[in-house]
Design goal:
Blueprint: H1 2-12, H2 58-64, E1 88-96, E2 102-112, H3 120-123, H4 133-147, E3 154-159, H5 162-173, E4 179-183, H6 188-197, E5 200-204, E6 206-207, E7 210-211, H7 213-221, E8 233-236, H8 250-263, E9 266-270, H9 288-293, H10 299-302, E10 308-313, E11 325-330, H11 331-342, H12 350-394, E12 400-401, E13 410-415, H13 431-447, E14 453-454, E15 468-473, H14 479-503
Parallel strand pairs: 4-5, 8-9, 9-10
Antiparallel strand pairs: 1-2, 3-11, 6-7, 10-11, 12-13, 13-15, 14-15
Helix pairs in contact: 4-12, 5-6, 5-11, 7-8, 12-14, 13-14
Length: about 500
């Protein structure tokens, strides 16, 4: 069934003959994979009462008139491609083999001035804020294959990376003094965005499945208006959560979505670890079909009313230096997002788009992309297993606890500070004392040659940290060094508690 669907997409991919490949903004419907539609779907609800409306850039709008006419331009300030110092770009990407594997050999892909699909002279010039149409078409097909959105007027556009996209989204919806809902531990740049934009993070308690829907409902149902307007934006990292590593079950996501429906929340689904499946059996790569079956149920796939903004990233699955991701939401939200992009980050880098398109659409195709995602999941599964084995061997279990991640890149080690000999029985530590224990272990680990990350850096509400924790990642260090690093970290933790015994009253 998958192969038949992919074949039909390949046949339908040819774009209408236009003067420029950048047709995504002017005619987004041509990018939708209508061949996969089987029934009528409802329209998304409007968020106009919440959105900070913005008109498209006047200069961008004027430049767009050149794409479909023979008009001579004396108006736009685009450089003449004749004076670009590059005539072609060549990138060598890993070769996708028929059995789903990827060897060491590479496939060269080139882009030159005057090329039909991707004209380098256009790629190197000012681009469409939504991205080049060919690449958006591939990404839109990918979104439809994976998530199958339940409403009609969904759209996908490219982003200049998730952090840039989040900054834009918060500016679109949130005013200074507003409050935004987060997991109690969350991605630190979002908290830094909150500080810069002067809105207030509200942390929602988590458990081993992530954000607790009953807690979300309790906070909203009992909201004190003296704190400001009731929050209507929820930011969540549902798969391989950073920093805890936990993944929300389908049942948990359904429950959270129902709370969002009840309280009319907008959900920002930031899911960069969605594709990194961590299997217990790290000896065999999953087929593309099996890999797709094991992916989590996304909020986008549950969304019936257009209240989810989904963010995907190439940073964890291709390369962070591309600075490209994609956003999927209702047409209304995407239109305003693109207008905001035009006067901020402007547009995704053209050479990065060429690299993505040539690799994903021309070389690998959807099947090859799925095989690549399965391949890197296998690689990271092996690393995860090595790290967990090292933790079980070298960390003091009376002090340390963790949840083995099934997606993502991280494992959070929680420290039972009540076992710290400097803590008196039944004593409740203040945040400052907890942070002091965490800080000493962090600094001593660095002295011992191991870099870890403080869990307190991820606190949504930084003034009330109630636990000490350190985040470990298994993806960056050489595999042979993972056990050595965990052993040194374990000695550091043990040493802190033994040191405390010598100074305890």
């Amino acid at each position: 069934m998958l192969l038949q669907t992919l074949a039909s997409l390949d046949q339908a991919r040819a774009l209408p003959q236009v003067a420029s490949p950048s047709t995504a903004t002017s005619n987004p419907d041509i990018l939708k994979p209508h061949a996969t539609e089987t029934e009528a779907k409802p329209k998304a609800r409007s968020w106009s009462h919440r959105l900070e409306a913005r008109m498209p850039s006047k200069l961008k709008a004027a430049a767009a008139t050149l794409k479909s006419s023979n008009m001579i331009s004396l108006g736009t300030g685009r450089p003449n491609p004749k004076y670009f110092p590059w005539d072609s770009l060549i990138a060598h990407g890993k070769r996708h083999q028929g059995d789903g594997a990827f060897g060491d050999d590479t496939t060269p892909a080139s882009c030159s001035a005057g090329d039909k699909d991707f004209d380098l002279s256009k790629v190197l010039n000012y681009g469409d804020a939504a991205g080049h149409a060919q690449l958006i078409r591939f990404v839109t097909e990918h979104v439809d294959l994976i998530h199958k959105p339940q409403y009609e007027d969904w759209r996908t556009c490219l982003t200049c990376g998730t952090t840039s996209a989040l900054d834009i989204i918060f500016r679109m919806f949130v005013k200074p003094g507003d409050s935004v809902l987060f997991e109690s531990l969350t991605y630190p740049p979002t908290i830094e965005i909150a500080e810069a934009q002067k809105f207030n993070p509200v942390g929602i308690t988590m458990d081993t499945e992530g954000l607790i829907p009953a807690e979300l409902d309790r906070v909203l149902s009992n909201w004190d208006e003296f704190r400001g307007p009731k929050p209507f934006v929820l930011y969540t990292i549902p798969s391989g959560h950073n920093p805890t590593g936990v993944t929300q079950s389908t049942e948990r996501r359904r429950a959270i979505y129902e709370v969002a429906e009840q309280h009319d929340l907008l959900i920002i689904e930031d899911d960069p670890y969605f594709y990194l499946q961590l299997e217990n059996d790290s000896s065999t790569q999953l087929t593309a079909e099996k890999y797709l079956e094991n992916l989590p149920t996304s909020y986008l796939s549950l969304d019936r009313t257009g209240r989810v903004i989904r963010l995907d990233s190439t940073s964890k699955i291709l390369a962070p230096g591309l600075r490209i991701g994609w956003l999927t939401a209702s047409a209304e939200i995407v239109r305003i997002f693109v207008a905001n992009t035009e006067i901020s980050s402007a547009f995704p880098a053209g050479p990065s788009q060429v690299m993505m398109y040539k690799l994903l659409a021309e070389s690998w195709g959807h099947r090859g992309f799925f095989d690549w995602l399965s391949h890197i999941s296998l690689e990271y599964s092996r690393r995860r297993n090595l790290l967990v084995e090292a933790c079980e061997k070298h960390l003091p279990r009376d002090v340390c606890s963790w949840t083995v991640p099934t997606f993502g890149m991280f494992l959070l080690v929680r420290l039972d500070v009540s076992k710290h000999p400097a803590v008196k029985p039944l004593e409740s530590l203040e945040s400052a004392a907890i942070l002091d224990i965490e800080d000493r272990i962090y600094k001593k680990s660095s002295v011992n040659g191991v870099l870890v990350t403080k869990g307190s850096w991820f606190a949504a509400e930084t003034e009330d940290v109630r636990e000490a924790s350190l985040r470990l990642t298994f993806v960056a260090a050489p595999e042979a060094a993972l056990e050595t690093a965990v052993e040194a970290f374990g000695h550091t933790v043990q040493g802190e508690f033994e040191r405390a015994q010598t100074v305890a009253p």
